[in-house]
Each structure stands twice: as structure tokens, then as C-alpha cells.
């Protein structure tokens, strides 16, 4: 399977936010990102992308193919 990078964000990007209760990362995705019908896309979050406020411990991230999005027929 060939990987084609569709989007990439830094943790400091305006496209990344933390929820008001500090429990959720919110990402703004460009609508055309998942534009191929009947396709599989994955989300990857690099280790150290974010850290806990109080302990400053890095969050481990999400490895490739752990979080997959499948598109249907448009």
C-alpha cells in the first residue's frame, strides 16, 4: 500500500485545539482531504505531539493504521 500524505499539522497550528475541559484534541480537517470514494485513510499522531499540562509528560500518540477512516460512495 502506498502512503500519500494528505495533511500534516504541528501541535501549535491554528487547526489544532484542546477542548475546554482539556480532555480532547480537536482538529480542523480540510473538506477535500477524504475525497476518494471507497477508500481508506489513516490518522497518525506522532509521539510527543502534545503533553499533559501539569506533569509535562508527553502523550504517546497514535501509530499508523490504528485509526482508519473509510469513505463510502459519494
Low-confidence region ranges? none
Morphology call: elongated
Which bin fits the share of residues in helices? under 10%
Mean pLDDT: 85
Number of strands: 4
Q: Strand-and-helix sequence, N→C?
A: EEEE
Radius of gyration over C-alpha positions, nearest whole angstrom: 14 Å
Q: How is the largest sheet built, in terms of strand order? A: 1-2
Query: Termini, distance in Å?
Result: 23 Å
Structural class: mainly beta
Strand content: 25-35%
Give a short account of the largest sheet.
2 strands, antiparallel
Structure, explained:
Strand 1 and strand 2 form a beta hairpin. The radius of gyration is 14 Å and the shape is elongated. The protein is mostly beta strands and 74 residues long. It has a domain of 39 residues. The mean pLDDT is 85. It has a two-stranded antiparallel ribbon with strand order 1-2. It has a two-stranded antiparallel sheet with strand order 3-4. The chain has no helices and four strands.
